[in-house]
Specification:
By secondary structure, the protein is α/β, with parallel strands linked by helices. The protein has 4 helices and 4 strands. Helices cover 32% and strands 25% of the residues. α1 runs parallel beside α2. InterPro entries: MlaB-like_STAS (IPR058548), STAS_dom (IPR002645), STAS_dom_sf (IPR036513).
Length: 133
């Protein structure tokens, strides 16, 4: 650095607020009433929250469910980690003879599905919705 030159670095702490992802599972009634489960996801599906969805999907697969419909109408944003959670769940289900279908993906997830050509694996249903801040 030349003499007389000073470089200032400004760092601004960012408070992302509470990290929340809601996962609700609707099982058929009565128990044993089928192999189909609807999983409702709401919030931001990203690096901070993808593990919550991964765990829920893995638990359902281990319980023996073979058809998972993942309803994403409440998801405001999805990044690569969120896509990874869905893809991993889908791969595990296919290996067990099942299917995972995503419904009502936000625009960011639809973009990632198109970018990585994963439409066949996750079978998205419904038009892409705008992401919300």
């Amino acid at each position: 650095m030349a003499s007389g030159t000073q470089t200032d670095q400004l760092t601004t702490p960012i408070d992302p607020g509470p990290v929340v992802l809601s996962v609700r599972v609707d099982r058929p009634s009565p128990p044993g009433g089928g192999d189909h489960v609807r999983v409702h996801v709401a919030g931001e599906l990203d690096l901070a929250t993808a593990g919550v969805l991964s765990r829920a999907l893995l638990d359902l697969i281990q319980e023996g469910w073979r058809r998972l419909d993942v309803e994403l109408a409440g998801v405001r944003f999805c990044d690569g980690a969120g896509l990874g959670a869905l893809q991993s769940g889908g791969q595990r289900l296919r290996a067990a003879g099942g299917t995972l279908t995503v419904h009502d993906p936000c625009w960011s997830l639809r973009f990632l599905l198109d970018l990585f050509e994963l439409d066949q694996q996750l079978q998205p249903r419904g038009p892409a919705r705008p992401d919300h801040a």
